[in-house]
Structures are given as C-alpha cells and as structure tokens.
Input
Amino acid sequence: MSIGEQQTDSYSKLKGYPKPTLRDSLLKYGGLAILLIAFVWAFNALDVNENALRNSPANILNFLNRATPPDMSVMDVAIQATLETLQIALLGTVLSAIVSFPLGLLAASNLTPGWIHLPIKSFLTIVRAIPVILLALLFVSALGLGPLPGVLAVAIHSTGMLSKFYAEAFENARPGPLEALDSAGANWWQKIRYGVLSQIAPDLVRDSLFRLELNIREAEILGLVGAGGIGFYIQLYSRAFQYQKVATMTIVVVIIAVLVEQTSVAIRRRLR
Amino acid sequence: MTDNTEAIHISNVHVQYKQSDKPTLNIEHLLISQGERIALVGSSGSGKTTLLRLINGYLRPKSGSLHILGEEMTARHARRRDLRRRVAFVFQGFNLVERASVFENVLWGRLGYVGTLASIVGGFTEKDKQIALSVIQEVDLLDQIEQRCDTLSGGQQQRVGIARALAQEPDIILADEPVSSLDPGLADDVLQLLLNVSVARSATLLMSLHQPDLARQYAQRIIALQSGQIVFDGKAEDFTDAEIKHIYRQEPTTMSEIV
Output
C-alpha cells in the first residue's frame, strides 16, 4: 500500500464532517427562488411598450443630434454653477462633520452605555431614511430658492450616515491603548483624544472625504428642486429644449465629479 | 533594599466577575513593602491578571480593603487619579497607539499630570517632554524616537511600553506577562530592563510571569496563585521544583471543577 493510499484510507475513516442539512438546502434554493419571483414581479412594473422600444434608438439619436455640438456660450454659467454646487457640498459636509463628531461619540457602543448609544443609533437610522430630495423640497418651501436650503438638506442627510461611520470608527479603536492611558491616570476626555482619536483619525478623514464625494453628487441633483447649483440650470435648459446647453453643463459636471473623486481616492489611499 | 513603608496592602478582598459564581480572586491578606521585586506565578485563569488590575485600580473590590501607597483605593476616591498615575502598568500586548511615534506614546504616559483643557490642545509642559526624553534614553530608544511604533520590533515596542510607564514617575510598576509575546532572548533583555529601572527608582515591581524559571531568576519574592487564592508566598529561593509541580499539577482538577 503506497503512502497516498494510506492517507486516503485514513481520511475515509473521518466521517464526522458536517454535511448540508435539509434546512440548509431549503434556505439556499428557496432563497434563490424567492429572488427570481421578486425579479419577475418587479419586471411587470416596466409595462414595456413595444412601439416605444422600436422608436427609442431613433429618439436617442435625435436627442444626441440636438445636443451636439455643446453650446459653449454657457460655459461661464456652467462653471459658476458647478462651483456653487461644490460650495453647497463642502459646506454641507463640514456642517455634518461638526454635528456628527459628538453624535458619533455618543453612538459608539464602546464609549457610552446602551441607554445612550442605542436610541441615538435608531435616531440616525431614521435620519438616513429621509431622502435628501425631500429635505431639499422642505427647506426650499421654508426658506425660498437658493443654495441655503441645499446646504441644510445635504448637511442633515449626510449626518445620518456620517455619524454612523464615525461611531463605527470609534468602535474600531483597539481597547488596549485606552486601558493603558486609563492606568496612567488619564480622564475620559484625554482618553478620547489620545486613546481613540490618535488611533482612528485617518478613518474619520477617510469617511468625511467619501461623504464629500457623495454630497457633490447629491448637490448636483438638488438644483432640480431649486436648491441652488448646477442642477437648477440643467433643469432650466432641458425644459426649454436647449439640449446643447444641457450638454455643456453635463460635460462640466462629469469632469468635476471625476476630478474630485480621483483626488479624494488618492488622498484616502495615502492615509494610514 | 526594601524600606518598611507599605506599597500594597490587601485584606479580605473578593473579586467576582458577573458571569461566574466562583470568586475570581479571594485574598485574605497580602502585604507588599515599597521597593520589593515580586513575581506572580500560576497557570492561566489563576487570577494573576485580576490581581494586577485590582491593584492598578482598573477593577474595584466587592468587599475588603485595598491600600495603595498608604491610601485606601475606593471607587470614588478624591485622589484616585493621583493614586493611579503613581501605579504604572506594563502590558503583555504593549497597548501602544501604533500609528503614533515613540515620543508621543511615552509623552502620553504623562496625561495623569496634565489638566484636561491643556492636554486636549496638546499643552504638555517642557518638564513633561524632558521626562519623556530621559526615560526614552533609559530604555535605549533615542535613535527611534520619531519612528511610528508599528515599525518597531516586539522587543522595542515593549521598551516603549516600559518607557511610557516610567514617564508616570511611578512608585509601583505592575507588569502583566511582560515578555510572553517576545522571543526568549528578548525576554531576558526586557526583564533585566524592568529590574534595572525599578531598582534605580526604588520602585516596587510586581510582575506576572508564565515561566517559573524566570520568576526565580528575576524576583526576590514569589507569590503563586491558584484558583484565585494565594498558595505560595515566600523567598524566590524557597520556590522549589516541588512547589512548582504542586502548583501547576493541581490546576487541571480545579479547572474541571469550574466547568
């Protein structure tokens, strides 16, 4: 008997390995089946019209035709409005970071007792659940058109997510250094500053930059409901069928978005 | 070597973790004089870490009394912070802020002396920085002073941990398995360093050690724990192989009792 055979032989004696149970299989295939049914059900909502499908390539070509060449005369408006969008996003993110820092501390399960962090976490879930466009509509009707309602909408909406991210970053701080500072006689504030923040500062910056990227995208949309920025002009020109101007706006938006994302990714990668 | 002032005085202390019904630590009487160098031995779960954390003020006794440096350590002691900064702790896993530099980690050992507002804005005094510098020199890490701790070897990281403890200007140095994450060769270096810095300050050194041989080599007095009780307390030379066998062999039966 060769060594290989001996091994196989001794393996075959080990019969105690876990086999998938009926419950496992049911969960697996049942889950797949439910997914498939849900997909078919959702497809019904499309209510596909064959005529529309047939005409769509022509329509799209027609649209592209009317959008080219981009009307460069609105370039200055596009740049100005994009800068406003960036300002809205930046202000909203900074405001949100300022609010999220204490909220995140309070929502971190390793720093506060359950009766504090659990209600705060639920509150943040609710804040996150409100779509940013609803917030913008609300603030536009309360404060009128312009960038201010946009800033507030972005700030509140992103606080829901950023506070949660910050809390998770705080929770990821290793407890060892905290215990060490505790035993050196440091008080709660000092432990937060030196035991926690010194460990996770890069995570906070990373989260904030990521949220800034998202907020720029949100802020572009907010103009549609009159809350300032480039979205306002895109909406204005497309309603007036001035697609060549819309094209210019779109080009500027895409370029700015790509630039910001590349910069942010590069910074985030260098943080450690 | 030792003077007669009390460093640690424990009487009738019981510590119990919420989950278990057996006391984790049960000490009727323990007196340690200032300047003694003691090794704490016993197998895992015998209560070594619990005892150290108790003396360190991290845990509070359920009953009994605990005096540190002549003062009673109670939950709401007005001078609790005062007392805690005079008791330094060296950890098995170093517990450094890894992305901070050697200097920063050691300087933060001074936090017990700095006011809240001042420390938040980084207001360490010149004296704090001088102390940090001199203890870093003492552990021979001046060349690495600006390096991030995660770039250091295990032995170097433990030396940073010791320097941070020394920055507290401690009267008592506690060390919980200070060398069990290190290679055997490094273990001797680190224990020798702990011994030297304690002697230099006539500080009390109480360290838990896994290896009885190291305990006999580096301590004057040995305290052995078993199931939370002191089962040996005497001179290092009286800690014979027979004692060691007795202490470590007994453990499995008690473990099964717990289960």
